[in-house]
Automatic annotation (TrEMBL), chain A:
The lineage of its organism: Bacteria, Bacillati, Actinomycetota, Actinomycetes, Pseudonocardiales. The keyword Transmembrane helix applies. This is Uncharacterized protein. Keywords: Membrane, Transmembrane, Transmembrane helix. It comes from Pseudonocardia xinjiangensis. The chain crosses the membrane at residues 82-102, 126-145, 152-171, 191-211. It comes from the Bacteria. InterPro entries: Perm_prefix_1.
TrEMBL record, chain B:
It comes from Pseudonocardia xinjiangensis. This is PadR family transcriptional regulator. InterPro entries: Tscrpt_reg_PadR_N, WH-like_DNA-bd_sf, WH_DNA-bd_sf. Pfam families: PadR. Transmembrane segments: none annotated. PANTHER family: TRANSCRIPTIONAL REGULATOR YQJI (PTHR43252:SF7). Signal peptide: none annotated. Residues 14-86 form the Transcription regulator PadR N-terminal domain. The lineage of its organism: Bacteria, Bacillati, Actinomycetota, Actinomycetes, Pseudonocardiales. Coiled coil: none annotated.
Length: 223, 115
C-alpha cells in the first residue's frame, strides 16, 4: 500500500469540500498547493525530513473543517457576482435588442397590437428594469468584505429565475395572443427567427446561472 | 497570540505587509510572522481566503505571474487598499489609545481622565 503525501491528502480533502465556479476554485486550490509546498520547503531548510516537513506544513495550514468555510464563502461571493453581472447584461440587453429590431422594422405589421399584448409588453419592460436594478445592488454588495454572501447568492438566483420566467413567459404569451401577426413576421422578416432563438438562449443561460448560484448557496461545508 | 484575537485584524495586517510591494501568499505569511516576531500564530490556511476577500473588495489585485521560475499568485495593494489601510491604522491608533488609557494602572493615569 502506498502512503499518500500529507499535502496531497489535505488538498484532496479541501477540494472535496469546495463547490463553486470552476476557474476560481481551481485557482484557489492551486494557490493553496503552492503555499503548502512553500511551507514544506521552508521546514526542510531547517533540517526536517520530507515527511515531517509535510505533516508540519499541513498542521500549520489548519484543519479542513476550519478552513473550507472561509474558502467556500469566497466561492459563493464570486458565483453571486457572476450571476448578478449576467442579469445586469442580459435583461437590459434583451430589452434594448428587441427595441432596436422593432425600430428597424422587425416586428408585427398589425397596428395597433391587442390591448393584452400592450399590457404584457409593459409588464415585461418593468420586470426587466426591476431585475437590472436588483442586479446593480447585488453586484455592489459583492464588493463588501463582510457581504452576506449566501443571502446575496439566494437573491441573485431567485431574481434570475423569476426574471427569466416573467420575461420569457410574457414574450411567449404576447406572440401567442398575436399569433397570426407573429407567424407573418417569422415568414417575412429574416431577422425575426434568429432574434427569438437568441432570446431563448439568453433566458436559458440566465436560468442555468441562477440554478448554479442557488446550488452553490445551498452548499453546506463539512463539519 | 490566540488566532481568535488576530482574526478581526487580519485584513489590516495583510494590507500593511503589502504596503512595501507585491508579494505572493506564502511571502505574505512569512512577512506576518517576521514582523510579529513569531507571535502571530494563526492557521496559514486562513490567509489565502482573506487574500481572496480583499481582492473581491478591490483592495488588492491578484495575478498569476512567474516568480523565481515558478507560477505564483501575486498580490498588489490597490489605491482603495491604501486608503483602507490608512483608515484601519487611524482606527487602531484611536482604539488602542482608548483601551490603553482605561487599562493603565491608576497610579500611572493622568488626573482628570482622558481629556
Amino acid at each position: 500500500m502506498t502512503v499518500q503525501d500529507p499535502v496531497d491528502q489535505h488538498l484532496a480533502e479541501l477540494a472535496r469540500a469546495l463547490h463553486g465556479p470552476a476557474r476560481v476554485r481551481r485557482s484557489m486550490l492551486r494557490e493553496a498547493r503552492d503555499g503548502l509546498h512553500d511551507a514544506v520547503a521552508a521546514h526542510r531548510t531547517y533540517g526536517l525530513p520530507p515527511r515531517e516537513a509535510a505533516v508540519r506544513a499541513v498542521r500549520e495550514f489548519g484543519a479542513v473543517r476550519e478552513i473550507a468555510p472561509l474558502y467556500q464563502h469566497e466561492l459563493v461571493a464570486r458565483q453571486s457576482r457572476w450571476a448578478a453581472l449576467l442579469l445586469l447584461v442580459a435583461f437590459p440587453g434583451m430589452t434594448f435588442g428587441w427595441d432596436l429590431l422593432w425600430r428597424n422594422g422587425v416586428g408585427w405589421d398589425t397596428s395597433p397590437p391587442p390591448t393584452l399584448v400592450v399590457a404584457l409588453a409593459r409588464l415585461q419592460d418593468t420586470a426587466s428594469f426591476l431585475v437590472a436594478a436588483v442586479a446593480v445592488v447585488l453586484l455592489a454588495v459583492t464588493f463588501l468584505r463582510a457581504a452576506p454572501t449566501r443571502q446575496v447568492a439566494v437573491l441573485a438566483g431567485l431574481t434570475g429565475v423569476t426574471g427569466a420566467v416573467v420575461c420569457g413567459g410574457t414574450g411567449v404569451l404576447m406572440n401567442l395572443v398575436n399569433g397570426p401577426a407573429t407567424a407573418a413576421m417569422l415568414v417575412t422578416k429574416p431577422f425575426a427567427l434568429p432574434a427569438f432563438m437568441v432570446s431563448a438562449l439568453v433566458c436559458a443561460l440566465v436560468v442555468r446561472s441562477a440554478v448554479r448560484t442557488l446550488r452553490v448557496a445551498a452548499t453546506r461545508v463539512v463539519d | 497570540m490566540r488566532p481568535d484575537a488576530v482574526r478581526g485584524h487580519l485584513d489590516g495586517l495583510i494590507l500593511a505587509v503589502l504596503e512595501d510591494g507585491p508579494r505572493h501568499g506564502y511571502a505574505i505569511i512569512e512577512a506576518l510572522q517576521t514582523r510579529s516576531g513569531g507571535a502571530l500564530d494563526l492557521p496559514t490556511g486562513t490567509v489565502y481566503p482573506a487574500l481572496r476577500r480583499l481582492e473581491r473588495a478591490a483592495l488588492l489585485s491578484g495575478t498569476w505571474s512567474t516568480v523565481a521560475g515558478r507560477e505564483r499568485r501575486t498580490y498588489t495593494l490597490t489605491r482603495s487598499g491604501r486608503h483602507a489601510l490608512a483608515g484601519q491604522r487611524a482606527e487602531w491608533n484611536e482604539f488602542s489609545a482608548v483601551v490603553d488609557a482605561v487599562l493603565r494602572p491608576a497610579a500611572g493615569r493622568p488626573a482628570g481622565g482622558l481629556s
